[in-house]
Amino acid sequence: MLKDIIRGFTIKNYYLAEIDQVGNEVYRSSINRWSWDIYIAANENSEYQGKAVAPGKGIEVPWTPLGGQDYLEEMMGMCQQQMTN
Prior knowledge:
Layout: E1 5-6, E2 9-22, E3 31-42, E4 48-54, E5 59-66, H1 71-84
């Protein structure tokens, strides 16, 4: 676990997630796998924020407040959105 502090938030978890980007109907067989570095941080008030970076792709999900039950799943959804833009 990382002990870095970011604006009063402490990084609680770091994940390396691999997410498949599936092509449209015509190219369904072509799968492009993206690696994401995902960080989950919290403050003393149990407020959570997440950030994700796709190394080599130049794409980042900036620090974003998280409100769901599964913070990793919430962040992976944001990553998938970035992959379709």
